[in-house]
Amino acid sequence: MKRLILITLVMCIGMTLSAQQKGDLYLSGIMSASAGKQIFQLDDEEDLGLDSQPMQASFGIGTELGLFIKDNFKLGFALSMPFSSAPYDYEDGEWLKIKSIGFGFNPNISYYVKLTNNLYYTPEIGVSLEAGTIKEPLRGGEKHIDGYFGWQVYLSFLAFEFKVSDTFSLGAGVGSLGYASLKELQCDITTGQFSFSLNNASLSARFYLPNRK
């Protein structure tokens, strides 16, 4: 029995240590999306209910450079372009939506745990910095346009990578935990909130460069 436990421990350690190696480098294309609904009271106290409301949605595309600074530890630098749309008011039978477009920079670090020969569990911790423009239609046909700056600290706890070959892999992630802050520049309004979400997902294609060490 003791021998069996020892063999199992050695196998588990071997699976962890035989993951990605120091010096490995990849370039990646990333696509992310999230969606959801929220019931809220309008200014005129009219509650139209969840079924009548459009989705709050966000979508992003980007690229990332990943470098393994130690065996199993990846340091990443990502650039992204996020888009979002969220309903906030209702007028003359039509929902008014706040829309934004931005540009983001995201340094992050991941730890790779080998689950099978080709599958890795890759939880990620990172910081996201983002700036862009918010467009808010107002009642009466007017529009308010403002710039914004925001940051977020996050943990992506359900992330995986599947190695298709030595030079190509697919990544996928669902769910995150974090804190985000956003400041509207002209209005000088800052908001912040903690979040725990399972309705966001990301997909990536990673191209590994030859390791010349």
Q: Residue-averaged pLDDT, rounded? A: 83
* Percent in strands: over 45%
Q: Count every helix, treating DSSP H or I runs of 4 or more residues as helices.
A: 1
Number of domains: 1
Name of the level-1 CATH class: Mainly Beta
State Rg: 21 Å
Under the CATH scheme, which architecture would be assigned? Beta Barrel
Short recap of the structure:
The chain is mostly beta strands and 213 residues long. It has one helix spanning 2-17; strands spanning 25-36, 56-70, 73-91, 94-111, 113-114, 119-121, 124-137, 143-156, 159-163, 168-184, 189-209.
Q: Would you give an account of this structure?
A:
The chain is mainly beta. Helix content is 8%, strand content 66%. The chain has one helix spanning 2-17; strands at residues 25-36, 56-70, 73-91, 94-111, 113-114, 119-121, 124-137, 143-156, 159-163, 168-184, 189-209. It has an 8-stranded antiparallel β-barrel with strand order 1-2-3-4-7-8-10-11. A hairpin with a 4-residue loop joins strand 10 and strand 11 (189-209). Residues 1-18 have low confidence and may be disordered.
Which secondary structure elements does this structure contain, and how are they paired or packed?
Elements: H1 2-17, E1 25-36, E2 56-70, E3 73-91, E4 94-111, E5 113-114, E6 119-121, E7 124-137, E8 143-156, E9 159-163, E10 168-184, E11 189-209
Antiparallel strand pairs: 1-2, 1-11, 2-3, 3-4, 4-7, 5-6, 6-9, 7-8, 8-10, 9-10, 10-11
Could you list some keywords that capture this structure?
mainly beta; 1 helix; 213 residues; 66% strand; Porin
